[in-house]
Amino acid sequence: MNNLLKNDEKLEDLQLDGLQIIQSKKFYRFTSDAVILANFVSVGSKDFLMDLGTGSGIIAILTAYKNKPKKVFGIELQEELADMARRSVQFNKLENLIEIINCDIKELQSAKIRQELNISEADVVVCNPPYKKAGTSALNNTENKSIARHEVALNMDELLKVVKVLLKYGGRFYVVYDSNRTAELISKLKTNNLEPKKIFFTQPSPDNDATLVFVEAVKGGKEGVKVLPVLITNDKDGKYLEKIKNLKF
Amino acid sequence: MNNLLKNDEKLEDLQLDGLQIIQSKKFYRFTSDAVILANFVSVGSKDFLMDLGTGSGIIAILTAYKNKPKKVFGIELQEELADMARRSVQFNKLENLIEIINCDIKELQSAKIRQELNISEADVVVCNPPYKKAGTSALNNTENKSIARHEVALNMDELLKVVKVLLKYGGRFYVVYDSNRTAELISKLKTNNLEPKKIFFTQPSPDNDATLVFVEAVKGGKEGVKVLPVLITNDKDGKYLEKIKNLKF
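Output (structure tokens, whole complex):
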């Protein structure tokens, strides 16, 4: 299988039934945020799931493997990254479940393009988007990494407009952002008829401010949100990855 | 001093330098929520503070005593309750700082009425409002108590419209709600140009969902919110009241 690997790439063991992901120094590494988000996603066996900005393919692969939905589409703007994710899918023998598409998320607004790509209304959409506003703090040192961290290629408004179009009525959207954008996110979700139904925060320790906010929103959902227990992400005992892999929401 | 007490009333010791509050079986008892909210309020010595729906006067009394602002107005719809709060203010010798006004919060929309009551723009507004929507769950068994718990006399939209008018530009608003109304609250605050700047939740224990959300919003504030550490409210060691009295935000 190692002919699936290129020179600057290596395999990372997800410590879950032998699942492995190709990682490259050229691209932003997936983080535990993605693993938490993948665990948060609730998806059934008849569901069609879209992972927007799939990157290494981590969320597409984890949700496909754990939940065996009908189909998972992973959308990735960067061609090389899409290719790498596609090879990770092959590596884990999930080609029947997952299709990686190399295109700009914003293009999915167009009904014509969705038709060409054979994309029907999604039951579930998930996105681990760039957290930081373009122009805030130092951009990452390579363009590849900046696209994953900063709103260079996609901002929150653009993302939510696409999600609203992709999702069927009653469908679920899962997303994570910097917690200091919580108010902006909640308000924009509601403006786009995506009603927050579950929300939780991560804190490094019991005494620290929250760092990330995770939201499940339902298209056309009724008002009223469940605020789940805060997730403490410190790793004093080194068992953090183990812990988040087994999260139940 | 006990001639300040009526038949069905008793004094409750706040365990803070001898501060006491008159409580009556006829009215909704103040809860620890009010004490937490009062501690959350940041108010300076030159500030004019308004406590909307002051009830027993607990928040007006605690903030006046602790922070010595220029002036505190406590607004209370129910005449008997306003009278009781006024006597609590006298009991604690805070008449110079606190004025209790018996009127409907909604009437404060009117510039004429504000002028008559000598109410100028507030630096800080605080409100421990009715949490529950009118018509949801069982109403409390007496009308007096229902007004404090259910949106019989004041709903969220009405409250925020008044707050927007009362507060000066850059002024701060402090409020607490059921956490399942977090999304609604945040979105409506933003609609009213009250930008959430600090937010935190209470949880009964580390494993339970949140119950309440506390928000500090700034009129005309810049987007971006700090999510403070979750506050665990269990009382295993019986030191909960002690703990919340000394909360620092």
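Chain B touches chain A at residues 179-184, 186-187, 189-191, 195-196, 199, 201, 203, 206-210, 213, 223-230, 232 (CB under 8 Å).
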